[in-house]
Specification:
CATH superfamily: Cation efflux protein, cytoplasmic domain
Largest sheet: 5 strands, mixed
Number of strands: 5
Helix content: 25-40%
Shape: globular
Number of domains: 1
Length: about 100
């Protein structure tokens, strides 16, 4: 079972990588962030779990109108995989899950 990690440097790097993608309006905090009162902290909307073979990254994003969700989520996934792989610990994400929760 994967354990959630609070590697703030990784979470901030993933957050930055996501927000740099065209079509992303913002990350939306999940219910766990709201219950833990982390909705306004950097990385809300990002959950990182460390598994036996690598990381599992879950993202909740709100997109800008006029962008195809499929294209944006593919760019997000590629950017996050590159960010995690670029950490130097030879770990790549097992899974990157991008959930589009809205369009503005």
């Amino acid at each position: 079972m994967a354990a959630e990690t609070r590697d703030d440097a990784l979470i901030e790097a993933v957050t930055r990588a996501v927000l740099e993608q065209p079509g992303v309006a913002f990350l939306q905090p999940g219910i766990a962030d709201l219950l833990r009162n982390r909705a306004r902290t950097p990385g809300s909307g990002v959950r990182v779990r460390r598994g036996t073979r690598g990381y599992a990254v879950e993202l909740h994003v709100v997109l800008r109108r006029g962008y195809r969700a499929l294209d944006v989520t593919r760019r997000i996934r590629a950017a996050v995989q590159g960010t995690v792989a670029g950490r130097g610990d030879r770990t790549t994400p097992d899974r990157v899950t991008v959930t589009v929760v809205g369009v503005v």
